[in-house]
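Sanity check

After download, print the first record. It should look like this:
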Amino acid sequence: MDVDSFLKVCHQFRLGELVTEQPHPETTGLAELAQSDPCRALEMFQRVDQAAMDRLNGSLRQLPELVESIRDTLSAGGRIFLAGCGATGRLALSLETFAREAWLGPGQENQIISLMAGGDAALIRSIESFEDFPEYGQRQLRELEYSANDLLVAITEGGETPWVIGACMEAAVVATRKPWFLFCNPPDLLRKLADRSARVLDSPDVHCLFLDIGPMALAGSTRLQATTVQMLVTGAALSEALGHESALDLVHGFRNLIIRRDYTCMVPFVEAESTVYSDGNCVLYQTDFYGMTVLTDTTERSPTFSLAPFENRDRKKELSSWCYLSLPQYPDSAAAWKGLLRRSPRTLEWPNFQDKASLKTLIGYDISVQTPDWRRERIQGQSQLPYLVHGKDVRLEFAGHCQSLELEGLPLLLKQLFLKCCLNAQSTLVMGRLGLFESNLMTHVKPSNFKLIDRAARHVQHRHRQKTGNNLPYEAAVRQVFQSIK
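Expected structure tokens:
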């Protein structure tokens, strides 16, 4: 893709008006506050999580219908497919693992099937531009033998991701049941900005569920409040449909949890982790029950802040990630991935993506008990400090600090989601302390797909306006972005 080719299609990706792309008025100066007063920064972060839950209340009237769609499908012998891209892809895979752990009985294991753009290997490292192609979403769904008796829940934070839309429209053609399309931006705004969104929103063959939550704590970082709320709603619906906790009880229970608990217990972990990185050292997260939640937070730091992603053990020349994950209960990488996912991996063996999406590639990201030893060889001269996330009460131990989140006895979904919120707040503020975003804007962006090129161009415009007081035309900003890419 060159600059002139992008400019021909850029009208489809100019998404700055979307609510999820807007700076949150409550988090102006977040990065600077993370440096000077991390306690206040965490309080600010928690208020945004609470505000998202308060706004969500007005979007729940369709939740019983979603529960009933899932229940009817399962009763008829159909399967539930959960599909997403990037953060919502990790969300989908996480919910399948939670279902296999807590909601599905013997013989039910294959009733919940998750897929993300690029397959399971994309958990670790984004596959550039994959999300821009709706036909890839269609193809992945077909390869999983999606049938007339199945139901798809397609999840996209913004509501405009081509891959998710492609999968959703494929499901609408194949199945007798209408797929569900979950998104976090106002439908009328999506129709105005993206023709592809209008196609799915106006389809009589799709159930659309708008989850109104407002802007993200960090503008455009939909791994935060958007995926928290979407995981909560989808997971709550699955729980009730499978005969467990009531969906509304789970939603209200999580809101109360967010209000009652105090994020400021994470202050010493924010300070300690940022110090480790600023001193040139690394962190090795180790966990027992919380692998998908810890993996999601740590791997999403790379695309959000343009950091080196987890390195592949088989590729000696790759840069090393600041942090990594180890599941010490598993003897080797293959066992660790099967244990993490609670099933065999679903990878893509497509000829053009063998080095990015194949099973061999995935197994090369060794997250087993062997991880400390092979990484020690890769990061010679650097320390590798263990960060433990373990126990039924969710206990954090790092750099001499210990904190229990006191979650024992809560439903699995709520435990995992509260841990997600704590880790999201911690990792975001760590990056603010290291200067990897400014105020509440993602300024350390690698423009690796159409949406991120647009975001980078808007940040160039914003910085130009701050420095000069003048407006920079969009095309000029785009050309600067492409020059930077070169």
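If your output differs, re-run the checksum step. Summary of this record's structure: The chain is about 50% helix and 10% strand.
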